[in-house]
Amino acid sequence: MSIVPSTGILRKLYENAWTQDIEYSSSAFWQAYLQTQFYPGNNHAVVCEYAPGEESRRRIDITVLQYDSSNHTLMRLILIEAKRPGGTAAEVERQARRGARIAMENEHLSGLYAITTIGTAFRTWVADHQSPELSPLHGERPRGERAAYTDADSAEAFTLEADIQFIKGEDTPLRVAPTVPSQRHLLHQLTSSPSISGYATTSQQAITASVTPTYMHTTTPEQGHSMEPNPPGEDMDLDAAAGPSTSGASEGEQAVDQASDQSMGEQSAPMEYQDSASGGDTKWIQVTLRRKTHMTRKDEILFTNTKSKTVNTTAEEW
Questions:
Q1: Where is there biased composition of kind Polar residues (predicted)?
Q2: Which fold, 9-168?
Q3: CA distances (Å), 210 to each of 71, 140, 169, 202, 257, in order?
Q4: Which of 3, 96, 224, 236 is most exposed by smallest CB count within 10 Å?
């Protein structure tokens, strides 16, 4: 199914991009189309000539930005590089790959999406911070092949709208933390709220015993906070340590690791950390651990305190 209406301004822009071997005509068509899919009302914006990083002199032809209302921040969601009909697939993909690499490094993202276009034809990609290459969302044709591109006015063009709807449903791109949340400064950033420090302590206890595997939070002079496996047989009694704060947790919330074999899903479990980063008396900090599984990218682990402040990383790095 074509994504170009039979009449109207988008049809005219498509015809210009088809007949004129000029890059700005091609870019104009894709700008207009993407503006019909991403707009401020759904917390997105389509902008042109946007740098992939704050200090980069490079400019991306078109960028889809996502607004995070919780933190009042913008994040790059999709990078689009557009070439005139006479452009080459190898060149436009090289530019998109470099731009994606800069954007992921600048914003510490685990991945983002890219679209490369040649005239009125497109190809969609996913970029991963652990891979130097773009990976196509559809098909198995090699990179750099013009024949792998789909024209916007063809019957196969519906895949682009399907990809866009999928990307919208994937929420905010994941950030890659330089250190995992069990380490001192990142954990302290998460749990710095003074209103969540009123927990009594009995011994080195941490995560509820219903979560498998169980981790115990300890402090050593050399490395600060760390996460170590709890010794076998030493189940933890949070009722004694934290009062009734976890007694109402559902079975689904406590079975966080059972989500690993699901295609999509989200489960959570309450956790407590011993906070001694600031010195003085030992304090217990309550956070909620959530694991979100994804179909096309790595699982997400989220740590949220009672003030709804969240630090997230990938399951692989946690």
A1: 257-266
A2: tt1808, chain A (3.90.1570)
A3: 32, 43, 30, 19, 10
A4: 224
DSSP-derived letter for residue 156 is: G
Residue 110: which residues within 8 A CB-CB, separation 6 or more?
Answer: 104, 128, 129, 173, 174, 175, 176, 297, 298, 314
Q: What is the pTM of this model?
A: 0.57
| Nearest alpha-carbon partner for 5 in 38, 29, 26 | 29
Joined together, the tokens standing for residue 123 give 């190809």
- What is the token pair recorded at 48? 């042109």
Q: What is the DSSP track for 225-290?
A: EEEEEPPTT----HHHHHGGGGTT--HHHH-GGGGGGSSSEEEEEEEEEEE-TT-SS-EEEEEEEE
Name the packing angle between helices 9-19 and 23-37 (round to 10°). Answer: 150
Q: With 80 as the cut, is the pLDDT of residue 168 above it?
A: yes
Bridge-based pairing state of the strands 111-118 and 73-83: parallel
pLDDT band at 76 (very low <50, low <70, confident <90, very high): very high
| Residue boundaries of the structural domains of the chain | 9-168, 184-314
